[in-house]
Design a protein that fits this description.
Elements lengths: L2 H37 L4 E5 L5 E2 L5 E6 L9 E5 L13 E3 L2 E5 L6 E10 L5 E10 L5 H14 L12 H29 L1
Helix pairs in contact: 1-3
């Protein structure tokens, strides 16, 4: 094989790969830059009780910790127990930077749904929810007397629609760029091999 043939062969393989790689890098940078506002939202990072936890002793408060500071004017937290029981007793949450604390009034044993909503800096509504299970509820007489006053004070919260996380969208976009880029590279390889 002559030196000219080897040079053409190398150029035919690396040039499309180089171009394909450049296209992938440029597209990925563009998509990540475009997705940055979606990642700027304020997700919940932890809670007490934890998401999905089973607790035997009712907590006096439920704590939600977010990635960034909360605005008390635009952040709301509701806690609904079995049969729509208002476990906040009508109390409002208190805020300290990125933490929301909500008084908890135990009702019957069962699953408690904590739902929250807030408005992001860019004006997008953000909603989320998690649940925990209380294995030993309040005594039946305490629940019976607390439930009517709680339901009169505040209606049970409406179900919260699950919002897809911004990071999930980014991963889909990155996957699309990688698959598309791989297709471009393969097509260019085939066309260069046919020449």
């Amino acid at each position: 094989m002559a030196d000219g043939d080897a040079e053409d062969n190398v150029r035919g393989v690396t040039t499309p790969l180089g171009r394909g790689t450049a296209v992938l890098v440029a597209a990925g940078a563009f998509l990540l830059g475009a997705a940055a506002p979606a990642l700027a939202h304020n997700p919940m990072v932890s809670s007490v009780p934890a998401k999905g936890a089973t607790v035997a002793v009712a907590p006096q408060i439920v704590t939600l910790k977010f990635e960034e500071s909360l605005d008390p004017k635009t952040t709301h937290v509701q806690i609904a127990g079995p049969n729509g029981y208002d476990a906040t007793g009508g109390a409002k949450p208190t805020f300290a930077k990125n933490v929301a604390t909500v008084p908890f009034t135990a009702g019957p044993a069962g699953v408690y749904l904590v739902s929250y909503d807030q408005v992001a800096e860019d004006g997008d509504p953000l909603k989320g929810k998690f649940s925990f299970t209380l294995t030993a509820g309040a005594s039946p007489s305490a629940t019976a007397t607390a439930a009517p006053s709680a339901s009169a004070a505040a209606p049970s919260p409406a179900p919260v629609a699950k919002k897809e996380s911004g990071s999930t969208i980014v991963w889909w976009l990155i996957g699309a760029v990688v698959v598309g880029g791989a297709g471009v590279v393969l097509l260019r390889r085939r066309s260069s091999q046919q020449d």
